[in-house]
Amino acid sequence: MSLLVDVTHRHGEFTLGAAFSAADGLTALSGPSGSGKTTLINLIAGLIPLQKGRILFDDRVWNDTDAGIFVPPHRRRIGYVFQEARLFPHVSVRANLAYGMGNVAKAERPARMARVADLLRIAPLLDRRPSGLSGGEKQRVALGRALLSAPELLLMDEPLSALDAGLKADILPDIERIRDAEGIPILYISHSIEEVARLATHVVALEAGRIVATGGPEAAFASGVSGQRSGSFLTAVVAEIFEGEGLMLAHAPGGKLYLRAAPVAIGQSVRVFVPAADVVLARGLPEAISTLNRLSGIVVNLREDKNSILVELDCGGDRLCAEVTRRSSERLGIAPGERLNALFKAVRTEPENLYRQKI
């Protein structure tokens, strides 16, 4: 299944112009507030009349302003999860879920509800009312109701923004299971590095109504235009844990990585976010220095970013981004094709920096 979008929409002085495609997996729409993310998915859902452009799903035209085609929202087979759960408070969780199954044959409904309840860990909640649920439980029920509508496309508008860090950590695995089990395109709006890094198979970065970067999470964050701070993701496998030092050693394509201790096991594959501002570049390897991580890489790109230069290195296949001042860049004479050493401290492993990945 695939979604193709090419739209232009104006509201007051704001103009949204976006053209992209999304296939199976989770496409994160990232960018600062006011960049047009929610407007974009509301256009896709048919909740806002499109002014100009086309929206196609699997070669079926949902919207074509030149041809005068508009398929109403209820005929688009879309599931939509909002920031708030929006459950019916006067009926049970089971009844809330059943409300979404209008597109499912009656004979298939019990099995489908059982599968989704198991997928999202909400089977014990089925006979409770929404008033007795936690924020995370309510959002899992909202996810279940969207899935039970048998959608061909799932839209999620910052579904975890109202939850605290603990509840977010609890529900992220559920969204991963949806991404991996349902086999449908998912458009997911988020401002969170943690969510995008852990969930996204593809990123579309918006700024002031236009798409400024597309690609995997690594490319979007390295670009510095994803609405987040610039940085890089390094993939590694945990090899050793130093219990008494609060450290662990992981093997990355570019060499050894020392990480702050985290609740992961030896052999676990992880993806680590390294802020570009934390990386120091050097031509040699200083001996008397406290930084534990020292990777060697080839300069593949230099990009101006306000008063700084973003230097992108290829470290054994992983891309590492460093932010240096113009003066430092000129003093080192940094140029594409040169080999430099990248030095940075043991990477913090709070939730914003370390993400477990499937091996």
UniProtKB/TrEMBL annotation:
InterPro entries assigned: AAA+_ATPase, ABC_transporter-like_ATP-bd, ABC_transporter-like_CS, Mo/tungstate-bd_C_term_dom, ModC_ABC_ATP-bd, Molybdenum_import_ModC, Mop_domain, P-loop_NTPase
Q: Which residues form the Mop domain?
A: 288-353
Against PROSITE patterns, the record matches this protein to: ABC_TRANSPORTER_1 (PS00211), ABC_TRANSPORTER_2 (PS50893), MOP (PS51866)
| Alphabetized UniProt keyword annotations | ATP-binding, Cell inner membrane, Cell membrane, Membrane, Molybdenum, Nucleotide-binding, Translocase, Transport
What molecular function does GO assign, one term?
A: molybdate ion transmembrane transporter activity
* Gene3D superfamilies tied to this protein: 2.40.50.100, P-loop containing nucleotide triphosphate hydrolases
Is Transport one of the keywords? yes
* Family matches, as Pfam families: ABC_tran, TOBE
Mind telling me which GO cellular component terms the entry cites? Answer: membrane
User: Which segments does the entry list as coiled coil?
Assistant: none
Q: Where is the ABC transporter domain?
A: 2-233
Q: What's the family?
A: Belongs to the ABC transporter superfamily.
NCBIfam families, per database record: modC_ABC (TIGR02142)
Q: What protein does this entry describe?
A: Molybdate transport system ATP-binding protein
Lineage of the organism: Bacteria, Pseudomonadati, Pseudomonadota, Alphaproteobacteria, Hyphomicrobiales
